[in-house]
């Protein structure tokens, strides 16, 4: 019998993405796999059931009873694991950090689970890097939110009433989300700067037409992430940043490290020194925020400065976010297949690094 790859309708509040799109369903069938989806699984993302030509649909319970592989966007509810048969594979964004009870539940059921957030940031892993693909969506949407909420125009305008100067936008963090935020702010005509403690990002920032903000502090680390700053380095960084923020109209915070709280870069004192009408959009709100005043999922005013902490931004552009995400999952699933069978090769770094549990063995040590 062919392997049955499945997906359910996502149930997390506000989640509109789907793990398997019509395009990826076709690719899976072309590989000789069977595809079974819960009815309405892709509807919120813009993919009604009829868009999935030749794909079978069933109730959630029927899908889980037949699943060899369950693809997900966010971790399924705990009750889902109990309905999967032993040996089934669950993969997607499983949010493993701080989820010991969930991982233990997977292990007790002798399920095999892969958390794609744990992929190493290597060239080979790029095609399956869910963090990068979804961060690109988040960076884009954060900038649109900033442009709408900012009391100023982003571009320079020459009008009969005079010339309007462009807004000055500072993007903190030059990872995938930050670079997409920079590119989008540039497209909207703002005067853009990018800041990152990793000096190697200067070239990337400048390649997008933005200015790299050099505060004289380097935190070059390994694996594509920054190292933690010393107390002296942090003090020097914060003083230089505080001085610069006085002339900035919009700050977009994107600095984050997987599995850890977001670095607190903007203090209340810094915010108090910003000009009236300034805006902060904190993309790192889900992991605590880059600003100590951020309220995850809401907005707050501090003096004359507005701080927004939007959550799950990729879900706000579900069609393209799902297309990118589903391609990531398909590329990873290719690693698990051999001659039409599920045979994870744990000698492969990408497979080994992402595995949470397998055949009753707890493999994640984070």
From TrEMBL:
Which transformation does this protein catalyse, written as a reaction? NAD(+) + NADPH + H(+)(in) = NADH + NADP(+) + H(+)(out)
Q: EC? A: 7.1.1.1
Task: Provide the transmembrane region boundaries.
Answer: none
GO cellular component: a single term: plasma membrane
The alphabetical list of record keywords is: NAD, NADP, Nucleotide-binding, Translocase
UniProt enzyme class: translocase
Q: How is this protein named in the record?
A: proton-translocating NAD(P)(+) transhydrogenase
